[in-house]
């Protein structure tokens, strides 16, 4: 009697968990499906409740690119995301290796200070950061968009945790060949860190692509707006044209969705390695 009862209880438990996971997935996916549906509906149909468009059209997407310089916004987002990702991965990995392997006085305190900056949100430092950028004359420039967000603590924290677990035997073998810290890092450590560096690059790119507050603050001319700022302004001007707003949202979301589908394994690995939730 006991074994069949336990087996039935386990099946009921799995069914409940599956039902709960299905409900949560539906709640998460429904806004995306609604955006996808609205992007291909015409103005007469957009306020209807049907999820599948009766008259499928691509005019909304073409109209978005006609009314505002959306291609320019996408290019600005791509440029800033790629440069910020390259700087953060390169500089963050070097700083993390130094904090994980080099022995010097104050190493723990220095890492503690860097780690503490993770607890400070961007809105808290927004005004002083803007004042510094303004004093340097970087407002309304690509340098102002890129440099202030290219030196953050998260890549250092993530890669330091990885390097602390890195096998020392491989580095000691490189030492026997006469490699110093720099050659050891470039020739041995970096090639074996590709998966973690790829995960860091993906999460950094997605975060930069979706950033809104800092680009809105530092870029006042439309030619420097990134796609999130441009989409916000578009919604302000054409808020009643929901079919166009949905089309603009879809175009902005396509690169990040495509990147996630291609590299979801690296994204999951980075979250597991950091112990943080995105």
From TrEMBL:
The keyword Transmembrane applies. The chain crosses the membrane at residues 15-36, 73-97, 109-133, 139-158, 242-263. GO terms for cellular component: plasma membrane. One of its GO terms (biological process) is transmembrane transport. CDD domains: TM_PBP2. Pfam families: BPD_transp_1. It is found in: Cell membrane. Keywords: Cell membrane, Membrane, Sugar transport, Transmembrane, Transmembrane helix, Transport. Residues 74-263 form the ABC transmembrane type-1 domain. It is a multi-pass membrane protein. SUPFAM superfamilies: MetI-like (SSF161098). Belongs to the binding-protein-dependent transport system permease family. This is Multiple sugar transport system permease protein. It comes from Allostreptomyces psammosilenae. The lineage of its organism: Bacteria, Bacillati, Actinomycetota, Actinomycetes, Kitasatosporales.
């Amino acid at each position: 009697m006991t074994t069949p009862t336990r087996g039935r209880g386990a099946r009921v438990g799995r069914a409940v968990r599956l039902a709960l996971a299905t409900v949560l997935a539906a709640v998460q996916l429904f806004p995306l499906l609604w955006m996808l549906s609205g992007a291909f509906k015409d103005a007469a149909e957009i306020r209807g409740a049907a999820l599948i468009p009766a008259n499928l059209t691509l005019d909304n997407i073409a109209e978005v690119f006609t009314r505002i310089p959306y291609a320019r916004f996408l290019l600005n987002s791509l440029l800033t995301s790629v440069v910020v990702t390259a700087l953060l991965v390169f500089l963050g990995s070097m700083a993390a290796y130094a904090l994980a392997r080099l022995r010097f006085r104050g190493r723990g305190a220095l890492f503690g200070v860097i780690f503490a900056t993770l607890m400070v949100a961007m809105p808290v430092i927004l005004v002083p950061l803007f004042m510094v950028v303004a004093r340097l004359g970087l407002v309304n420039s690509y340098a102002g968009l890129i440099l202030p967000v290219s030196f953050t603590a998260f890549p250092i924290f993530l890669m330091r945790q990885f390097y602390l677990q890195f096998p020392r035997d491989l580095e000691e073998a490189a030492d026997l060949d006469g490699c110093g810290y720099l050659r050891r890092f470039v020739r041995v450590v970096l090639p074996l860190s590709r998966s973690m560096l790829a995960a860091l690059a993906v999460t950094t790119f997605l975060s930069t692509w979706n950033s809104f507050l800092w680009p809105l603050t530092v870029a006042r001319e439309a030619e420097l707006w990134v796609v999130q700022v441009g989409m916000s302004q578009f919604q302000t001007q054409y808020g009643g044209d929901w079919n166009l707003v949905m089309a603009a949202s879809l175009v902005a979301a396509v690169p990040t969705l495509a990147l996630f589908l291609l590299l979801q394994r690296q994204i999951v690995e980075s979250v597991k390695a950091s112990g943080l939730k995105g």
